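Protein 1 of 2
SEQ + STRUCT:
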Amino acid sequence: MFLLFFLVWIIFNGAVTLEIVLFGLVISAVMYAFICKFMNYSIHKDIVYGKRGFCILQYVCVLVWEIVKANFAVIKLITSSRYDLEPALVRFQTNLKTKQARVILANSITLTPGTITVSLEGDEYVVHCLDKELAEGMNHSIFVKLLEKMERM
């Protein structure tokens, strides 16, 4: 939060000089001390938010990478005449505890080409896959592992 205060100070000033930086550090420190004392904030919360932010960034990067990989896999399936597509409905369960994590997983599956989350009831998913090969290991995917890691925080 201290860094956020300082960054806002620098952006609003529009210039970076020694005086502006020193004054910004002092103002940011006073603001941070104020929220720690009167708004039930702490350095520990900053560390937790930082770790969560890193995990969210990691999840988004993995999601984008999986979308790119799935795009190429679907293009290969569609354009190749040697494959006979075998669509499949897959049912699986996860150990995700929060509804938010389960919905994020369902949306991530739907965003990935070749798969659509048909239903989510409790912790049971029904996913339609363009081909059986796309359905393998869905309940132990990298998405599930990263979401479980975020839930433990």
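Protein 2 of 2
SEQ + STRUCT:
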Amino acid sequence: MGATPDLRSREPVVNTPQREVVMSEQAQAIFDEAMKLPIGERESLVSRLMRANDEEPLTDAELAAHDEAWAPEIRRRLAEVESGAVETIPWEEVDAQIRKLIGE
């Protein structure tokens, strides 16, 4: 392995399945309003929504749809690692860089 990569200079990771989920008009309107909030309030809103998702289990149908949507992305990423197209970073290095970024 070469030099330790700088996490800040890496391309952003896009965590979305291959299929884009279309929002209802109501959800789109809420999103549009949320985007008008200051960044700190948006972060707080996202955090609360994510916690709410974690507290409510998915139905079997929702879980199956989730798994089906993510399966192609997981296969693609695994193939990239197995082929050597991407290089993984050991957790110890990532952890050290995160701690450096936050001043620990």
